[in-house]
Structure formats: structure tokens, C-alpha cells
Amino acid sequence: MADHTFEYWQRRLDDLARILEKHGFAAEVASTATDARNRIRRAVEALAPKTVGYADSRTLRATGALDMLRADPRWEFIDGFDRTKSRAENLEMRRQALMTDLFLTGVNAVTEQGTLVWLDMVGNRIGGVTFGPRHVILVVGRNKLTADLDEAMRRIKTIAAPLNARAHVHFKTPCQITSRCHDCASPDRICNSWLMMERCYPKERIRVILVNDDMGY
């Protein structure tokens, strides 16, 4: 029996890309993580940035784009997630990443109406998306697509946030144990700041690369 999963998602992602373009975003659909990396490379080369920064994203990492960008001498790559540095040093680098020519990250959820949704602990990701960097590239797996804003927020609280908490073994939150949100008051709480972005301004400042594959949390 034929598997029509790819064609099913391709149609939905193509529709979403058109909606995002109507909302002022640049949008395109990649077939695989490798295709997404190649699209990122072409977009970056066209922009020719002097400085490049990012906020951590499992989806972005899975494309291999960060290693590609880090190794290229044509721009200064600002890494605020260097495991050889202290947390204080990395936080300072993340502040510097908010004033780069190009900023890359992922998205927690995107609705069929074209609203992009994030929930952050520190806020460096949503800060870079909204203002500061001259250009932004977002990479989004098909598993992030939701019917509406309520489903997007529910998805983040019940799937993305608990999984992310488990990935940070040094954090101590109830959802690490139960895999459910407790709206906790833990000092390590990762759910602090929401962002819902309905439109892109200035037009095409943000490029959204939708990937026809399940990627990230």
C-alpha cells in the first residue's frame, strides 16, 4: 500500500507558506533537514551578514546549519551556547546575538492561520525574533503545525516544555518527573514568556523554512 504521508504534509505546508507570505513573512517548504540546510545556506549567502547569532533549537541543530555557519570565516559567528564557557559568559554572548545582522532559531508551534508561537525561559529567543537582528531565519518541523492558538499553547505546555525540561537534566521542575505541566514555581521554571507573532514587520525581515519532517520538540 502506498504511503501518502509526505504528499499529505506537502500540501498542508504549501498552504501554510502561502498564508505566511500574505502575513509579510518570506516562507518556503523544504523536503528534508538537508534541504533545509541548503536553503539556509542560500539565504545567508544572499544576505551576506557580517555577524550571525542564534538561539538554541533542536530543529535548527538537526539541519546541520549551525556547524556550517560556525565554520565559515565570512562572518563572525556569535555562540551563546558554548559548553566550554560559564553560564554568565554565554548569557553575555546571547545579548550580543540580539544585535547581529542575522539571527536563527526555531518555533514551538505554528497555527494553520499563520500565527507563530513561542514559550521561553530566558527570552533571548523571542527577543531576537521580535527586534534587534536585521534578519531572522526560522526553521519549523511539520509536527509543530496546530489547528489554532489554543492547540498551539496546549501543545507547548504538554509536549514541548516537558520534553525540553527533561533535556536539561540539571533543571529541577515537576514536569521532568510527571511529563505534565504543573504551572510550577520552581526556580528552574522554563515557561516564563510567551510570544504570538501574527504578522512580520518589516515585510520579509523573517524567513520561515517549513520542513516536511518531524523535527524537534
Detailed description of the structure:
It contains eight helices and ten strands. The longest helix has 19 residues, at 149-167. Strand 5 (109-111) and strand 6 form a beta hairpin. The radius of gyration is 17 Å and the shape is globular. The protein is 40% helix and 21% strand. By secondary structure, the chain is α/β, with parallel strands linked by helices. 40% of the residues are buried. The mean pLDDT is 96. The strands form two sheets. The chain has a six-stranded parallel sheet, sandwiched between helices.
The description of the largest β-sheet is:
6 strands, parallel
Whole-Å distance between the termini?
Answer: 30 Å
Gross geometry: globular
Given helix and strand content, the structural type is alpha/beta
The percentage helix is 40-55%
Write the element-wise H/E pattern from the N-terminal end onward.
HEHEHHEHEEEHEEHHEE
Total helices: the number is 8
Summarize this structure briefly.
The protein is an alpha/beta fold and 217 residues long.
Labels describing this entry:
217 residues, alpha/beta, six-stranded parallel sheet, four-stranded mixed sheet, 8 helices
